[in-house]
Amino acid sequence: MSQLTILNEIEQLPADALFGIKQRYGQDDRATKVDLGIGAYRDNTGKPWVLPAVRAAEEKIHADVATYNHEYLPITGLPSLTKGAAKVLFGEELVAKHSDRIVTVQSISGTGALHIAAKFLSKFFSSKKIYLSDPTWANHKAIFEAQGLATSTYPYWNAASKSLRFQEFLQTIETAPEGSVFVLHACAHNPTGLDPTEEQWAELIDTIGKYDHIALFDSAYQGFASGSLSKDAYAVRLGMQKLALASPILVCQSFAKNVGMYGERVGCFHIVLPNQSEETTAVVRPAVQSQLAKIVRSEVSNPPAYGAKIVGTILADDVLTNQWYDDMITMSSRIQKMRVRLRDALVELKTPGNWDHIVEQCGMFSFTGLSPEMVKRLEEEHAVYMVGSGRASIAGLNEGNVEYVAKAIDEVVRHYLTQSKL
To answer: What Pfam family is a match for this entry (predicted)?
Structure first.
């Protein structure tokens, strides 16, 4: 083949669906337009919100003239971030008890953490099958399959009842090949907003351990779902206490949502080593750390500094940490308020169907139950943008648009009900 034409047969892929929505929204000049697509927090005026804790941390960083710089970070990341992130995720008590078994590296947000996990698994456990929830975050499958890993799904969402397919989930764990990897949404499941109860989590984790599988937790919304770091980390901490006795657990952590570090790309990847002898752990821990460092070094050389310094500063300063706790409550409570407002507006409009699932779900998203055809009409006729699956970012709702969105949903639901009767 001539070098002149060597690129001519490369297939053009379709644009990313989510960012395609953002592009169409940006080009829409209708004054009533509403963006419920991208998962990013907005305040009650529809504007991006820089957390007060973040503003204060930035001021503190810039004010320290003696240490302010743009130097390289260590390959494994900023220590104040990696150490603080582990305490946020696992809790100070578990970290104090098992610090020698926790290996942490900084990552490029949660997506980067998942990529490191996929690279690590593909190098050392390439034969293991990766199980993803059905449905799951759109990028999960691409991240793991890009590293040559085989993926499958476990049942999760019952569209008819808008509930968890719990027994089928358990059956998949029981019948999966021994040693499979189950990717679990730690809280605020994306896209459904539906989480297992604490009792269900206990049974799921026990079953994963019973069949000698590996748990990989994707923690993208800790503190953002309920406003409580400990409540949102329940599954991860239970997994550490139960599964990490005989198996490693992997955790991918993002600070995009709960600190508003969307574009700064701040995250961490953690491996909790199995509970072996001190002598064995002393050999295994540096070996695992070195392999993770090699992955980081070969791909990004070392992680980005600015966002890491912001989060690290917040986590190392008690005053800023407490402000951050208040900020998470501000965000999570506003989103919950909008869930109630949307549900109540739909009930008041007597929109066909039951809409209680909107308030029963948690976190940034709601799996509304709207069909792709309904979503398309919402966009074309009402300038309300959401993902084709019916996933809506509740963070995009506010006092100024929630009634309009409810009326738009009411119209499209009634429209398609009428169409189905013709």
So the answer is: Aminotran_1_2
Q: Indicate the pTM of the whole model.
A: 0.94
Judged on CB neighbours under 10 Å (0-12, 13-18, 19+), 79 is middle
Residues 238 and 374 in one domain: no
Range of the domain at 239: 70-316
Q: Which amino acid is at 78?
A: L
Closest CA to 417 of 368, 348, 352: 352
Sign of CA dihedral 394, 399, 400, 401: positive
Q: Is residue 76 part of a domain?
A: yes
Angstrom distance (rounded) from CA 102 to CA 141? 26
Strand-pair partners of 251: 217, 270
Q: Return d(Cα 318, Cα 40) in angstroms, integer.
A: 26
Residue that finishes a domain, picked among 277, 300, 316: 316
Q: Let me know if residue 249 belongs to a domain.
A: yes
Judged by phi (left if over 0) then psi (alpha if -120 to 50, else beta), residue 54 lies in alpha
Task: Name the token pair of 8.
Answer: 């001519």
> Coil, helix or strand for 390?
coil
Dist CA 233 CA 250 (whole Å):
14
Q: Tell me the angle at which helices 52-63 and 318-348 cross, rounded to the nearest 10 degrees.
A: 150
> Is 234 in the same domain as 121?
yes
DSSP assignment letter at 69 = -
Active-site amino acid positions: 137, 218, 257
149 and 183 Cβ atoms separated by less than 8 Å: no
153-166 pLDDT, tens digit each: 999 999 999 999 99
Q: What is the pLDDT of residues 82-107, one digit of tens each?
A: 999 999 999 999 999 999 999 999 99
Asked if the model's pLDDT at residue 338 lies above 80, the reply is yes
Residue 106 forms beta bridges with which residues?
A: 268
